[in-house]
Amino acid sequence: RGFVLLRRPEGDEIARLIPRSEGEAVYAAIMTDRANGRLPQEVSEAELIPRYGAPRGVVRKVLMRFAAEGLVQRQRGHGWRFVDSLETDEAVNESYQFRMVVECAALRQPGFRVDRDRVQQLRRAHEDILARAPGGIGTDEWFRVNTAFHEMLAASSGNRFFLQAVRQQNALRRMQEY
């Protein structure tokens, strides 16, 4: 039982072949609009429903996903507020500086223990990307591998708060990809 791949999909090919769910499409549309300044920092479900033509339940699930990723906060009463994002060069530089401090501190933790198998897996993934011709990888694949590397470093510290900080920075960076 099962199947055999005739060839390995390249770059973002899988994403192009498999249709997005309604929730994924709304997530991507909101992320794109926010990243490009077409969506204000404060929004309500009532505003988003007609804008994206999605049912309330889908919009709410998407906002809850953004909240879980640390990208929005629920307002008192009603509405949602996007956290400060990497909209300016200054914010991007501040984010890099923050991540350097956090990751260097994570590496110096007394409980730092690296999973050598995971390191080798990530090294192979990076080498695979570097071996391809320019344009041979999609931004989703690069982002996924890069994110996994930085989260592995933070997780190896044994301190959940380093991992939480790196994940939040990665979520902000994901918005830049849209």
UniProtKB/TrEMBL annotation:
The record ties this protein, via InterPro entries, to: GntR_C (IPR011711), TF_FadR/GntR_C (IPR008920), Tscrpt_reg_HTH_GntR (IPR000524), WH-like_DNA-bd_sf (IPR036388), WH_DNA-bd_sf (IPR036390)
Any one GO MF annotation of this record = DNA-binding transcription factor activity
- Report whether Iron-sulfur shows up as a keyword of the record: no
Q: Which domain of life is it from?
A: Bacteria
Q: Which UniProt keywords apply?
A: DNA-binding, Transcription, Transcription regulation
Q: Where is the GntR C-terminal domain?
A: 94-178
State the name under which the record lists this protein: GntR C-terminal domain-containing protein
